[in-house]
Structure formats: C-alpha cells, structure tokens
Amino acid sequence: MPSQNSPTVPGARLPKIPLSEISFEHLASHHNTSSFSCAHEELTDYLTADALKNQDAHVAVTYLAMYAGKCVGYFSLLNDSIIKKDIDPEDDKDWYTYSYYPAIKIARFATHQEYEGRDVGRAMLTAIRSIAITVSTYSGCCILTVDAKPDAELFYERFGFHRALKTKKKNTIPMYRRNIF
Q: Was domain 22-177 assigned CATH 3.40.630.30?
C-alpha cells in the first residue's frame, strides 16, 4: 500500500482519512501552498495567487485542510444571501417575511488531486457546518450556498444541497443547503 505522501496508483483505492486526523488552519502568510494541485486549475491558482489577498481585503476567508503536515484541501467562505423564491417552497419558513435568507457562501472548495475520494471533502463540509453554526450565534445565518461546478453537483447533493430554483449561471450550478443545524 502506498504511504500517505506517495503518488496514487491509477485505479488503486486509498483508505479514507478519518475526520479526527484532518485539522483546519486559517490561511496565513507562512503557509506554503505551492504544492497544492487539484483537478480544476482555476481552484489551484486561486489558492496560490489570490486567497491570501482576498482574505487580507476581508472579501473571503480561507481555511486549509491539513493531513500529515500537507495541505490536502481548502475552502473559502464569504457572506451571502439567497432570495426566497430561489429555494424550494418546502424549505421556506412561512413565518419568515423577508425576501432573502442570510447565508454563508462556499466561495471556493477544492481537494488535492492525490487525496480525492478519501473523505477530505466530507471533513471540509463538516468544518464549514461547524463554522456556520458558530457564525449564526453572532450574525444571522441559516443557509449554506455554493455555485457548484457541474462535476461536483452530485457530491453536494449527497450532503443535503439542492439546486436553486432559478439558474442563470452557465458554468456553475447555484445550490443551497437549508438545514445547517
């Protein structure tokens, strides 16, 4: 079996990484992200070139998923809202009279390509949910949103996300998860 840091063998199934073995670090200037590589080049480029700039400008906050001293994934979060008419009527709260629900957007979400299929994404979504619950004690937040890449839609669906009812974007699929608590 390959070691945790060796390249993956095509077709080989590597073991899942337990959530307890993945830690999350707030991106800082001392982190070396140059070895991070995922299947979508723009997500790799965002982490290495733009994430820290956006964080310093208070536009988005990025967290690194660390395993055995290596960055195996990352996600960036920012404030968002979703219009009520874009969510399924079953997810709507009749008593809520405002036009928009406050949300946290998963702005970027990527797993290192050598660690795909090893539950890094699940661990990151668990961390995001925990962050959203904490934020909701300071500021209104009851929905997670994401503009999913088409090849990631099924991943998000497995974790309770639904397509927004109105889709205007061409390259991504707006999705939301209503029940974060």
A: yes
